[in-house]
Amino acid sequence: MNVKPAEKLSMAIRDAAARGEPAIVAFMTAGFPSAPKFREHLLAVAAGADVVEIGVPFTDPMADGMTIQRSSQGALKQGVSLRWILAELAAMQRPSAPLVLMSYLNPLLQYGYAKLATEAAAAGVCGFIVPDLPFDEGAELRTALAKTGVALVQMVTPVTTPERLSLVCSASEGFVYAVTMTGTTGKNVAVPDTVLDYLDRVSKASPVPVCAGFGIRSREQVAKLREHVAGVVVGSALVEVLERGDDPTAWLQGLRPSAPRSPQHDG
Amino acid sequence: MNAHVRFSADEQREMLDAELAGRFPDARGRFGPYGGRYVPETLIPALERLEAGMREHLHREDFQRELGSQLRDWVGRPTALSHAPRLSAAWGADIWFKREDLAHTGAHKINNAVGQALLAQRLGARRIVAETGAGQHGVATAAACARLGLPCVVYMGAIDMERQAPNVGRMRLLGAEVVPVTGGDQTLRAAIDEALRDWVADPMGTFYLLGSAVGPHPYPYLVRELQSIIGREARAQFIEHSGSLPDAVFACVGGGSNSIGMFHAFVPDRSVEIIGIEAGGRGVALGENAASLSYGWPGVLQGCYSLLLQDENGQIHETDSISAGLDYPGVGPEHALLMAAGRVRYESATDGEALAALTECSRLEGILPALETAHALHGAKRWAEKNPGKRAVICMSGRGDKDMPTLQRTLLAGNSGVAS
Ligand SMILES: Cc1ncc(COP(=O)(O)O)c(C=O)c1O
Fold it and tell me: Does this model's pTM top 0.90?
């Protein structure tokens, strides 16, 4: 029981990859489409995923496309906050899949890093992804989270220089988030060979598992990525599934290359 | 004084000394505690390239020569320093205007736009994106891009497109594509978010021409360098006229570009009071104004650690101001530093006070100022009452033609503020 939260996260991804399929890191905005159904949605998502990434809504999600902008606003309108999310997690029967919080920096800054590290660990949070906190500005948060063993996951992108790539990968905890493209979340990426080459470079440089994300929404993409990364992050597409009221567990299971084909995952 | 920002006298002295010695921004892009580079990883190489390009070109003789000739022959610099005799008589202090409203396209924004566009050209940019609030930065960028033959896209909040309609047409005539932003608060903040999203999609081919002294490093520094010609000219012109320095200088503060441009040359002159005026909107409560230095506390927005109007959860709050150019919940990091160091005082003027000052200036001096500028005018008026006979220079940051839709709805609507 002495496994650090950051390691629990790496292990979950490695274990899935060892079974021959990329780990599915499933993103949902906390409290969207419905705050009262947050716990239910979280459990349903976790049942189809290896890691759940819970989005803390923010007024100015500058790295996000239309879907996550919409889900963030929808959650904020219902009063969802970091405080509320941590309280919900602390109070519920949590899923066994490790949890990661995705938040822009300002809500974390205002919460206070020391308090955040303690309360996040107590609520079963294994790591943080902070899209507007590049490696160079992250020392303070990284140090605070390290006190409770919680990971600060770093991102790399196709335009990250080779020197920076090794620097960022060696500093990343839990996993490395390899952004598949230059752009915001929510688009549909074709996963051309140049992207696969880049993902191979990241996987080679990284001591922790690599998960590819941004624009992943189909089983074909996941199948194409399986040889190159340990996991995939599925965000906007899953938010849209929840928004439509479809079953997230079944949809996530259908993303796995071994799953039987179903029409909603084609194209 | 902002109760959220408290530094000891020693800390204040240290910050001011470092600022005066030119040690800010430091290697991490900070002005004391403020500033930095809080952006998605995708933008890091683009910002590093911008910084390297800026360091290579900005202060080089050939670049400065080209910029200087564009500013002289196309923008119309130096702009005049005008005495304001009738306002002086009415207010009781000696009032002078630094006439950025006379610069090409009608505001100080052109100083920055033409400088950054020249830099973009040297860095081989294929395309320029910009945000705009009042539309002045959009017009300036569209004009500079037309002049240099660069394609230009301007993001503008839907609310601002309506209240600054004349500028939307001007941008389109100048060949820019104007993209309405209907998400977020539909004003300047949402326009910046959208411009950043555009830039993230093509960080190496697109040049983001940011319009105020905000955003990630190196923008606050770059914009200050390009705007500080305002204060350098004003200082020299005032000395030539009067043989001494003014007692006070004023500017309005939105993101803080005309103000940092006006103030920077005067910061070492300890005898000169420096006063920035923010938008006091309808009142002092959160959401009723856009006065981040007066009422905000530290946080991170759009790449920069500075003072923000936000709630206790770190959500950025909606702002309110009659002037689109001041309607922004953050402020440039160098202003946060100058306030923390105790060198510059920041106050606010309400919508009503700005409208009254606009009326007075128009009638007594024959100058219709921008609504943004009118806030600075009110600040100077308030100061003049307490400092009879002293001399103040106000940065006339822009002309008011763009504000006609708002003025039609307020001052010109029946029996409102304009007494006849
Ligand atoms: C005439 C004028 N003055 C002032 C401002 C405020 O911007 P800043 O604080 O960057 O000078 C604007 C912004 O649009 C403007 O158009």
Answer: yes
Nearest C-alpha neighbor of B405 from the set B367, B371, B357, B363: B371
Among the listed residues A7, A21, A50, A64, the single catalytic one is A64
Q: Helices B333-340 and B9-20 meet at what angle, rounded to 10? A: 130
ipTM, two decimals, is 0.96
Lowest mean pLDDT among A169-173, B50-54, B133-137, B412-416: B412-416
Cβ distance of B314 and A161 shorter than 8 Å: no
Q: Which two tokens stand for residue B418?
A: 């304009």
CA distance B29 to B218: 7
CATH number corresponding to A5-246: 3.20.20.70
- Which chain B positions have a beta carbon within 8 Å of A76's beta carbon? 315
- The whole-number pLDDT of residue B3 equals 84
A99: which 2 tokens? 């949890």
Task: Find the helix packing angle between B136-148 and B165-173, rounded to 10°.
Answer: 10
Return the structure tokens found at A117: 């590290």
- Whether B36 and chain A come into contact, CB under 8 Å, resolves to yes
Give me the torsion for CA of B351, B354, B358, B364, rounded to 10°.
Answer: 140
3-state DSSP assignment of residue A199 = helix
Kindly list the domain boundaries of chain B, sorted by start residue: 31-71+109-224, 77-106+228-409
Residue with tokens 């919940």: B329
DSSP secondary structure code for residue B370 in this structure = -
Query: Domain B77-106+228-409 has what CATH class?
Result: alpha beta
Structure tokens given for B20: 């005066």
pLDDT of A264 = 55
Q: Are A107 and B316 a contacting pair at CB < 8 A? A: no
Closest CA to B36 of B51, B25, B52: B25
Ligand 1 pocket residue status of B321, Cβ below 6 Å: no
Domain topology for B31-71+109-224: Rossmann fold (3.40.50)
Domain boundaries, chain A: 5-246
Structure confidence at residue B379 (pLDDT): 98
> Hey, what are B158's tokens?
């839907």
Quote the tokens at residue B402: 């763009």
Query: Does residue A87 contact residue A30 with C-beta atoms inside 8 Å?
Result: no
- The Cα A241–Cα A30 span in angstroms is 14
Q: pLDDT tens-digit profile of B174-213?
A: 999 999 999 889 999 999 999 999 999 999 999 999 999 9
**Residue whose tokens read 């600040």:** B379
Sheet of B34-38, strands arranged across = B30-31, B34-38, B303-308, B297-301
**pLDDT profile of chain A (267 residues), mean per 10:** 90 96 97 98 98 98 95 98 98 97 98 98 98 98 98 97 97 97 85 90 98 94 95 97 98 91 53
Asked if B373 is an interface residue toward chain A (Cβ–Cβ < 8 A), one would say no
Cα B70 from Cα B82, distance rounded (Å): 23
